[in-house]
Amino acid sequence: MGSYEIHWKNSAERDLRNIDPQQVPRIIKAVESLVDNPLPSQHRKLRGSERDYRIRVGDYRVIYQLDTETKIVIIYHVRHRREAYRKL
Asked: What are the sequence ranges of the domains in the chain?
């Protein structure tokens, strides 16, 4: 698929600050793996959307958008599974 670029939205950076610090490196590692493979085997497409996906990292969900034309992955949210799908 080629190399993609990761862009973090302010909302995702804010979400990371509210997560248990022991979980953050694991989440960042999962997000960085999207550079080589933006659609890993555990990805799921979000219903009602053309380009929105999520990956699961333990109890957390990373909500992102994939732009295949410009090869950019935009990280929108990193939230606990209880709150991940509210107000998207």
From this structure: 5-80
